[in-house]
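pipeline: protein-struct stage 2 | run 1193 | Glycerophosphodiester phosphodiesterase
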Amino acid sequence: MKRIVTVLAGVGIAMSSFAGTAAAEQVELSSIVSKQEQQKMINVAHRGASGHAPENTMAAFHKGFEMKADYIEIDVQMTKDGELVAIHDTTVDRTTNGTGAVGSLTFEEIRKLDAGSWFGTEFAGEQVPTFEEILDAFRGKIGILIELKAPELYPGIEEKVAEALIERNLHHPNNEKIIIQSFNHESMKTSKELLPNVPHGVLAGASWADVTDEQLDEFAAYADYFNPNMNIVTHDLVSDVHDSGMRIYPYTSRSQEQALRLFDLGVDGIITDYTEHVYKHPVKNS
């Protein structure tokens, strides 16, 4: 059972955007606590605990683990020489001291880059990690939500990811601690064929605000999760996703208010830069 730790400390402020009176705030709080006690809220550290450490680095992943997230979310791409690495953008420009497309650089070239200084001097020297390093460091310790980033740029990436998981015996269900997702839904069909026992998810941007029941049913034929932009999430969408047999982990919450809103909408998990907004510890009886 998951807990949002800051609700009781700052409810007057946190709930002000959701209700106009003290009575309405109390009703809203009661609703949230009730739902908290009725369902398990999955806490996903987006690109690691990226509100506290440079995204997609081992520092961010370790921070997410230390903060007791249920999953770390990682972005996987492929270098020019076929190495799987964790980085969000299709270029290295924003999050390292280098330039160029990920797919045009060798692993050796990417490995030399500083992926931490942009976030803070204390992270100087952080490297772009490999997919296999992340698996070896965290398997069995925390769930790993794997996003295939722009797989259309990297032919064969689905097979390489599958090989790495199979080599480590991570292709069998184990409390669903491995999930694969992508905005490229065709890629997810391919990946599901390679890894039929691994849960998969389809990511959905704002353009999917009017997704139909028929489309959700089509996704459900190969996906276990429909993970949309948080701005399009409504009670009806959550209900429709559940009716299709899938679960819903919206992205990306960056404030306590956003986390509270998603919780009250009845989602199954929250993908967040700040794992402290969606906590893991069970509620204690007074």
